[in-house]
Amino acid sequence: MRWENLTDDRVEHGRAPDAALFGAEAVTTRTFDTPEFRGVTFHEIRARSIVNRVPGASRMPFEWTVNPYRGCTHACVYCFARNTHRYLDLDTGLGFDSQIVVKVNAPELLRRHLASRRWSGDHIAMGTNVDCYQRAEGRYRLMPGIIEALRDHANPFSILTKGTLILRDLDLLRQAAEVTDVGISVSVGFVDQELWRTVEPGTPAPERRLDVVRALTDAGIGCGVLMAPVIPFLGDRPEQLRATVREIARAGATSVTPLVLHLRPGAREWFMTWLAQHHPHLVRRYERLYAEGAYAPKWYQRRLTRQVHELAEEYGIGPSRPGLPRRLRVPEQSPAPDPAAPTQLTLL
Ligand code: SF4
Where is the Radical SAM core domain (predicted)? Predict the structure, then answer.
């Protein structure tokens, strides 16, 4: 593994690093013999920086990110952050799911960064690369210190997650929301149980994630849903879309933003292998739909977006009261992305 690459934000956004940021002596490798972490290896590092700038060419609606982990035990087959493991000389398939890098000093680094006179208090987005509330967070507890630092500096932030563990930090989130702009989004692309078990095997069930939406809304923080990814031919039937939007509405989401599956290098190979095993009859259709690259065609994206927006209107999804915090918004996907362009959301 190329440990010197681990904390470089240029790696976060898909470019090769040019400087060693820390040495191999900074790494402690651990395994825990509990059912929850069986087969998972944790690589603890002391990072040199934690606030990463999103390169100017990015289409993302935020400029700064914090990512305390690399790799994700949620193990979504389609996760396009997989490719970032390649920069560490780690496997982008099972390795991404089971070799987890933990930046153990993330809270103290962030607190120092926020106190710097050079920091102007911009919005910080979390959950943009891998899930900051993946299972590892239950053991390492990095997010409480991170949220406390943001709260103490009244620094606006957003979190995108599939992890129910976020409810552990509900009080802290509430405290932060009293002093700054806090936006929480939960990712639920579908509520189909069979699809969930096979394509997102390490994640909490969709209904548990919707419980998170309900709890955050009840707590007065409010929560949007990133309906992502909508998986062509497996999760896009009208009745599936309706069931998903209906459950999102029942959970009290303040917004729903659909996003069609995209298959960037790294994720594409892993997903197509999975598809060939589980749905071999769809392989040709996928090759045609994604013939132009990582994104489904614009006509498909537009149709899907229109369907979801119509359903959202029918079910009355929207802000229930004025003054709710800012939501994470996702721009329309490009049909012809630059393969060297910075990463987007990982469809958490
Ligand atoms: S899509 Fe999100 S939750 Fe799933 S493996 Fe990737 S980072 Fe983790």
Answer: 58-306
- What's the Cα-to-Cα distance from 189 to each of 208, 237, 244, rounded to whole Å? 13, 13, 8
Ligand 1 pocket, CB under 6 A? 72, 74-76, 79, 81, 130-131, 134, 162, 203, 346-348
If one residue of 65, 78, 79, 264 were mutated to test the ligand 1 pocket, choosing by the most ligand atoms within 8 A of its CB, it would be: 79
- Phi and psi (nearest 5°) for 323? 85, 10
In a domain, 184, yes or no: yes
Buried b (16+ CB within 10 A) or exposed e, 297-306: eeebbeebbe
In a domain, residue 321? The reply is no
Domain coverage including residue 184: 3-315
User: What is the model's pLDDT at position 327?
Assistant: 41
β-strands 124-126, 41-45 pairing: unpaired
Q: What is the mean pLDDT of residues 101-117?
A: 97
Distance of alpha carbon 330 from alpha carbon 185, whole angstroms: 11
Confidence bin at 1 (pLDDT 50/70/90): low
- CATH at 14: 3.20.20.70
The total number of structural domains in the chain stands at: 1
pTM: 0.88
